[in-house]
Amino acid sequence: MTPNKDQIPYSLLELAIISNGKTVAETFETSLDLARKAEELGYSRFWLAEHHNAISIASSATAVLIGYIAGGTKLIRVGSGGIMLPNHSPLIVAEQFGTLGTLYPNRIDLGLGRAPGTDQVTAQAIRSDRMQSVYKFPEEIQQIQQYFSPDNASAKVRVPMAEGVEVPIYVLGSSTDSAHLAAKLGLPYAFASHFATTHLFEALQIYYNEFQPSEFLQEPYSIACINVIAADTDAEAERLSTSLLWMFVSVLTGRSEYLREPTEMSADIKELWNNPSVQQMLKYTFVGNKATVKQKTREFLTKTGVNELMVVSNLYAHEDRVKSYRIFAEIMQEISAEKQAEK
Hints:
alpha/beta; 8-stranded parallel barrel; TIM Barrel; 13 helices
C-alpha cells in the first residue's frame, strides 16, 4: 500500500444514528441496507464507531453490529472505527475479532482508539481503571497482535480462535499522539478529521516522517474522514445539512437528542453555522451538489495526500443518506479516472 495510487479507495463510517421518530431496531435495519448499497457502490469498508450514553447513537455494541453487517453483506470489509481500547480487555477484543475474522475471512478490520467515546462519568462506569489502560495503549495494541500471532500457541494465555487469523489493525487518532504510535508500530493510520480538524496536517506529517516498516505494512497508509452531504442542488444539500448542524451543536452544548428533521437554512441557523467552535469542528464538511463536493474533495486529497477517504453522511432520511453516498461514490470514481487519464 502506497500513497497517491490512481485508484483511491473510499469507505464509509457508520454511527447508526437514530433519527427522531425512529426506533433502534429500524436504525439497525437501515444500517444494514446502507451497507448493502455501499457494497454495490464500490465502497471499500464499512466501519462502525463505538460511542456510549448518547440516545442518538446505536453503535455501542460495536463488535455485535460488525457481525450483523458482515453477515448481511458479501464483499465489503467491515470493521471498527473504532473500538476504544481503554474500555476493553485486549484479550476480549482478540476473542471477539478473532471470532469475526474466522466467520468472515479477509473481511474484518480492527480500528483501535484510546478516547472514551463518551462522557467521563460513563467512561468510569464502563471501566473504572480505564485511565491506566489509556497510558498502556501501545502495549495493549501489541498484546492484541500477540494474541493473533500463530506464535502465541505456546503461551499460557491464548486466544485460539484468533491465532493466525487475518484481521488488520488500524491506529485511530484525533491528535498527534497516535500518529507517533502508528508510525512506530508500522501500522496504518486513520485520522478523525470529520470532527477533530486542528491537528490533521501535523499528524499526517508526523506519521509519514516517522513511519517504520513492519511485518504488517512496508509503507505508510493513511485514511482521513470527512463529512459529506451531497444532493442534486447546493440549496437542497444546505437544507439537509441542518440536521448535522444541530447534531454538532448538541455535542458542544452537552445535550442528548435524536437527529432532527432538516429545515430551511434560516438566518439564525446560518449564524449558528458560523460560530467559531462549529466552524472548527465542521471544517472538513463538504456540502453541495456533485460539482461542489467534487471540487472540495479533490482539493482535500491534493492537500493531504491520504491514501483513502472515509466519509460519513449523517442525514435524517435514509433515502437522502443513500443518495449522498451514491453521489460521493460517483465523485471518487471520476477523480480516480481523471488521475489515470492524466498519465
